[in-house]
Amino acid sequence: MSHIATQRAIVRMLFDERFAGAVYRDSDQALADAGVSADERRWLTAPDARAYRTDPHFCDRALHGLLSEFPVSGALALRAGADLRRFFSSETLHRCVQSGGVLAPAFGDWLCAQRRIREVLVKETAQIELALAGVRRSRGTTGGAQCTLAKSAALVSAGAGVLSVYQGIQRQLAAHARPVADVALDTLVELVLKRPALGPGERLLAELKHDGTAAIENLSDALGDLLHLAEGGCTLEALYECARSHGAEAGEDVDVVDGLVRDGLVVIGEQ
Amino acid sequence: VAGFDQRVTQLPKLGLGVSTEYGAADAADSLDVFRLRELHPQFASFLEIGVETAKGLDDDAQAWVERGHPCTYHFLDVNLDDPEDFDSAWLDEVRAIAARVQPAWMCGDAGLWHFGRRDRGHMLLLPPILSVDAADAMAEGVVRLREETGYEVLPENPPGTAYVGNLHLLDFYARVCSGADTGQLLDCAHLAIYQRMCGHEPLTGLDGFELERVVEIHIAGGTPRQTRGFAFVEDTHTADVLPDTWTIFEHVAPRCPNLKAVVFECERNPLERCIDGFSRIAAVLQDTPLSP
Questions:
Q1: To the nearest whole angstrom, how far is the Cα of A99 from the nearest Cα of chain B?
Q2: Distance between A43 CA and the closest CA of chain B, angstroms
Q3: Which residue from A74, A154, A236, B217 lies 20 to 30 Å from B98 (Cα-Cα)?
C-alpha cells in the first residue's frame, strides 16, 4: 500500500512549498521515513514542479476550515501577530498527514505549543477548542473499566475566568453576518478582550450534544470530581462514594450516577 | 456472479443529463434543473447527484428524487484504493442515501477525495497514483463497494495537474476496469486535461482502452490558466467546452456500444449559456446507442 504513503507525500508537498522543493532536490532524504518506494520517489519529481502549485489557495482554505473549529484561539493568535500559515510547514503537519492523522487536533496541539505567541489566552482557549474538536470526532465505545467517561465528553482544566473570556470572544465573532472563521481571519475586526481576574482554576466539560453540536460548560466541584473519577475508569461503587462525599444521602447517590448515565456522560461497561 | 458484459445489459439507458452537488443550485446564475427539464426534457433525462454523506442531499436533489425522476449516485468522499476507507458507519450512510434516491448506478472520481481519515477539512480531489499496485487496490475497492451496496460502481478518471506514476491514465483505468470487471465513467474534459499536461495528443492511449467498458461519459468546460508561467487547465465546469474535449467526445461516443448516459457538467451556469453545448452533445449522440 505504498501508493497511499505516496499520496500523503503529495498532500505534504501541496501544503508546504519548501518541502516540495526538498523532495525535488533530494527525494531520498526528504522522504526517508515516509514509506515511499524508490520508484514512487522518482515519479513524484517527474512532473514540472509548478504542477504542484496550481492552487494558490490550498493552505488558505485549510486554515479557514481549521478556524471554523478554532475561531477564538485563532482570532486571538492572529491579533497577537502570529502567522498561522506556519502550521502548514511545521513538523506537526507533516507528521499528521504522513501518518494519516486528523488535522484539527494537530493544529490545536501546534497552537498550544507555540511559544512565540505571547498572548497567554491563546493556549488557554485553544485547549477548550481542542477538547471540542475531540468530542466532535468521538466514535465507538469505551471499554475496560466498569465505568468510564463517554467518548463524547472531555474534561478541560482552565484558568480562572477563561471560559467567560472564551464565550465573550465567541459572541463577538458570531455577531457578524459572516462565518466565524472569516471574522477570526479578518484582523481588522477588533475584539474586546476582558482579562480574567486571578482566582482558582476552573473545570470545564466539553460535550457533543444530541444535535451534533459541541458545547463547553463549567462544572461544579461535585460533578467535576465524579467525571474526573470516571475519566480514569472506576467502579460504580466509587462513583456512589464520591457522590456521598459531596453530600448525597443514601439512595440519592444512585440517582446522581444514574443521571450521569442517562445524560450520556458516563458509560457503564462490562461488569 | 454475472460478468460485466451481462450485467451492463441490465442497466437502463438514461440518455443526456445534468449533474449537481450539495448547494450548487444556491449560487447566483446556477442551472435550474427543473426549468431545464420543463423546457428541454431531452437535455435533463436524469440527474447525477453528487453525494458527500456528511452533507446528504440538498433541497433540489430531494425534490428531484421525490418526483421519481431518474438519477445516479456520484460519490464525493471515498478513496477506492484505500481498504481502510470503507468503514461501517460510512457504508451505512451510503446505503441509506442510495435507498432513498434509488440510483441507476454509482459512480465517481476514482482518486483521492480526502487525506487521512474522512474528516472535515481533509477533503480535496487528486488523481490516483498511476501504478499497477494502486490500480489493483482500486479494483478491489470497486468490487467492495459494489458488493456492499448492490449497485454497479463506475470509476471515473479525475482531474489534476500533477500526475504521478508510470502508467498512462487510460492504461491505469483499463486495469481497474478489468480487475474489477466493471464499466468506466470516462470524463472527456478530465482526459483532455491529462493529455495536455503530459504533452500527449487528445486521443493518445485510447487504442488500448476497451471502449465496451464505457457506460457513462462526462463533458464539461475548462479554463486555461497559468501559474508562474506554467500553463494548465482548471476543471471549472463552465459551459465553454475546450476543443480537445470535443475531439475526445466525438471520437469516443460513437464507439461505445454500452454507452448508457452522458452528463453535461454545467451546474453553475445559467440555462441559456448551456443550450449550445447540450445541442452539440445531442447531435453527436445521434450516432450512438443513445440515439432516440
A1: 8
A2: 5
A3: B217
Could you report how far apart the first and last alpha carbons of chain B are, in Å? Answer: 32
pLDDT digits (tens, 9 = 90+) for B18-51: 999 999 888 888 999 999 999 999 999 999 999 9
pTM for the model stands at: 0.92
**What is the reported pLDDT for A270?**
52
Report yes or no: A125 and A102 within 8 Å, Cβ to Cβ.
Answer: no
Number of DSSP helices (H) and strands (E) in chain B, helices first: 9, 12
CA angle B215, B217, B223 (to 5 degrees): 160
Per-residue pLDDT of A50-96, as tens digits, reads 999 999 999 999 999 999 999 999 999 999 999 999 999 999 999 99
Closest to B121 (Cβ–Cβ): which among A7, A65, A100? A65
Residues of A in contact with B137 (CB under 8 A): 1, 3
Inter-chain residue contact A46 with B164, CB threshold 8 Å: yes
Residue B227: beta bridge partners? B230
Among A128, A20, A46, A119, smallest CA distance to A77 is for A119
Q: Which three cell numbers stand for residue B179?
A: 480487475
Please name the residue of chain A whose CA is at the shortest distance from the CA of residue B111: A7
Q: Please compute the mean of the pLDDT values over residues A110-134 and round it to a whole number.
A: 91
User: CB B162: neighbour CB atoms within 10 A?
Assistant: 22
**ipTM of the complex as predicted:** 0.95
Which residues make Cβ contacts (< 8 Å) with residue A201, sequence separation at least 6? A157, A158, A159, A160
Kindly state the cell numbers that stand for A255. Answer: 440517582
Residue B94 C-alpha cell reads as 451510503
